[in-house]
């Protein structure tokens, strides 16, 4: 059984610099207590700002245009699949999840529950990684108890399933086993989001048995 490494294993922190519309802007601060994190999260309550907190380290990130385009294209395909295949996914977007006892908090790019309402944490989280750097989100998700984390980076997905107190890399989702991540990775590269989602729909319908 192979185990996932840290999401931060092959990234190094970068500070916010001149704005590039296709590069996420982020900064990481250390020595931030839980109360300060909570106050900042309330003060900077904006959909354009994401915060990730892990045991005293706080990342503040402003997602790029590319980040948001990839996130929304993938989310639309996931939700289209759920509709076409009657999978009872319930989406919760970028809801903030926090657990003080584990000193963890973040907003996923997208998240879902499977056939249930939202409780303490979602079943599935989607993360888009465009810019190197920042806090290891897998460590945060592990502390929150999220069952699967789907990470899209450099044109491909890596899927992680919670196994005890660690994540292991999986070839396909165990919660949504029919979802074709290869097709989504291919189609998200189409600049026209509408065309990409239509192409995904056409593939889904073509795969249905006839007669």
Can you characterise this structure?
By secondary structure, this protein is of the alpha+beta class. It has a single domain (25-206), classed as Alpha-Beta Complex (tt1808, chain A). It has helices at 34-43, 65-84, 137-144, 181-187, 193-206; strands at residues 25-29, 50-54, 57-62, 89-91, 97-99, 104-106, 110-114, 124-129, 148-153, 156-163, 166-170. The strands form two sheets. A six-stranded mixed beta sheet has the order 4-7-8-9-10-11. The radius of gyration is 17 Å and the shape is globular. The N and C termini lie far apart (41 Å). Mean pLDDT is 89; it is low at 1-18.
Q: What is the count of structural domains?
A: 1
CATH homologous superfamily descriptor: tt1808, chain A
Provide the residue-averaged pLDDT: 89
Largest sheet: 6 strands, mixed
| Rg | 17 Å
What is the helix tally? 5
| End-to-end CA span | 41 Å
Second-tier CATH architecture: Alpha-Beta Complex
Assign an overall shape: globular
CATH T-level fold name: tt1808, chain A
Q: Enumerate the spans where pLDDT stays under 50 for 5 or more consecutive residues.
A: 1-18
Overall structural class, as computed from helix and strand content, comes to: alpha+beta
Percent of residues in beta strands: 25-35%
Write down how many β-strands occur, each being a DSSP E stretch of 2 or more residues. 11
Adjacency order of strands in the biggest sheet: 4-7-8-9-10-11
């Amino acid at each position: 059984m192979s185990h996932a490494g840290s999401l931060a294993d092959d990234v190094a922190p970068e500070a916010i610099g001149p704005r590039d519309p296709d590069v996420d802007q982020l900064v990481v601060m250390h020595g931030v207590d839980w109360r300060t994190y909570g106050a900042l999260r309330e003060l900077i309550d904006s959909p354009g700002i994401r915060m990730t907190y892990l045991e005293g380290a706080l990342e503040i990130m402003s997602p790029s245009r590319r980040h948001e385009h990839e996130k929304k294209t993938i989310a639309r395909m996931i939700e289209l699949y759920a509709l076409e295949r009657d999978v009872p996914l319930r989406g919760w977007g970028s809801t903030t999840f926090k657990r003080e006892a584990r000193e963890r908090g973040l907003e996923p790019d997208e998240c879902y529950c499977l056939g249930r309402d939202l409780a303490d944490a979602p079943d599935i989280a989607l993360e888009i990684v465009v810019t190197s750097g920042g806090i290891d989100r897998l460590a945060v998700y592990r502390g929150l108890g999220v069952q699967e984390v789907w990470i899209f980076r450099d044109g491909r997905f890596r899927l992680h399933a919670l196994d005890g107190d660690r994540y292991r890399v999986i070839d396909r989702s165990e919660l949504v086993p029919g979802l074709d991540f290869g097709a989504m990775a291919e189609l998200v590269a189409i600049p026209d989001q509408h065309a990409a989602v239509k192409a995904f729909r056409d593939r889904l319908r073509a795969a249905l048995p006839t007669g």
